């Protein structure tokens, strides 16, 4: 019986880890930049759950960034980008697991202009969104569903973005445990790109941390409600001449709340930056949420039926 219990626990833990994912490769107009090339990467595929942490910009913190590509990838303004997420750095995106299908949620892309993308420190400010996709009520699909089905995620660089070096922040938010905060799992890495051509767009920007609050309806969200009424967090994407620079423009569900967020973007950074996250270890973490690890300050106990299980020194998660 003890062996059976051990096997069941190991299987449960394996399913938790299998949910993780990492942005580890991208293509420019159908041409791969090369696996891990032009990217700043941790070796671990775990999420960030504390939206007030500096790690929410380009990862880091509980997932230390240890792989820094020396290369900056040329990207023409208006180019189509294909982001390749994979379960671990050893996974082949063509055949292996991308992310567990239960990890439904939105995908967003931000840019931050820097002097030299290969050497610049990760900025906290100066980020603007160029793409977002959430839940499509017509098809009943999330952006993550499209990522899994296509084994990659396509979006475009706006044609009006000014030329120069940028960090490109590509982000996936898994909402399966987002009913409480912290609980939403943010998966993001940053690519080092040089935009050529383009225009003179100089958009308003947000900070990371600061763009999201733990109480935002796109961060604290019950995935299992019906009907689904989801508001993507952060500002709305920039536009070129009034045209939305997205591959899919109908994917975001528009609600009165979303309209309000779009008209109050300028105050988002100030409001969110004053919100403290992670707590002081009190309360209970939701199913599959982070419950421990080096530097973790959030809940360390789990809701009924779940136990805090160590994945590694930096990350423990509530699992059955």
UniProtKB/TrEMBL annotation:
Residues 242-284 are annotated as: Disordered. GO terms for biological process: cellulose catabolic process. Pfam families: AA9, CBM_1. Residues 1-19 form the signal peptide. The keyword Metal-binding applies. Keywords: Carbohydrate metabolism, Cellulose degradation, Copper, Disulfide bond, Metal-binding, Monooxygenase, Oxidoreductase, Polysaccharide degradation, Secreted, Signal. It is found in: Secreted. It catalyses: [(1->4)-beta-D-glucosyl]n+m + reduced acceptor + O2 = 4-dehydro-beta-D-glucosyl-[(1->4)-beta-D-glucosyl]n-1 + [(1->4)-beta-D-glucosyl]m + acceptor + H2O. Its EC number is 1.14.99.56. Its cofactor is Cu(2+). Residues 242-275 have a biased composition (Low complexity). Residues 283-319 form the CBM1 domain. InterPro entries: AA9, AA9_LPMO, CBD, CBD_sf. GO terms for molecular function: cellulase activity; cellulose binding; metal ion binding; monooxygenase activity. GO terms for cellular component: extracellular region. Its main location: secreted. PANTHER family: ENDOGLUCANASE II (PTHR33353:SF18), PUTATIVE (AFU_ORTHOLOGUE AFUA_1G12560)-RELATED (PTHR33353). Belongs to the polysaccharide monooxygenase AA9 family. Has a modular structure: an endo-beta-1,4-glucanase catalytic module at the N-terminus, a linker rich in serines and threonines, and a C-terminal carbohydrate-binding module (CBM). Lytic polysaccharide monooxygenase (LMPO) that depolymerizes crystalline and amorphous polysaccharides via the oxidation of scissile alpha- or beta-(1-4)-glycosidic bonds, yielding C1 and/or C4 oxidation products. Catalysis by LPMOs requires the reduction of the active-site copper from Cu(II) to Cu(I) by a reducing agent and H(2)O(2) or O(2) as a cosubstrate. This is AA9 family lytic polysaccharide monooxygenase. It comes from Orbilia blumenaviensis.
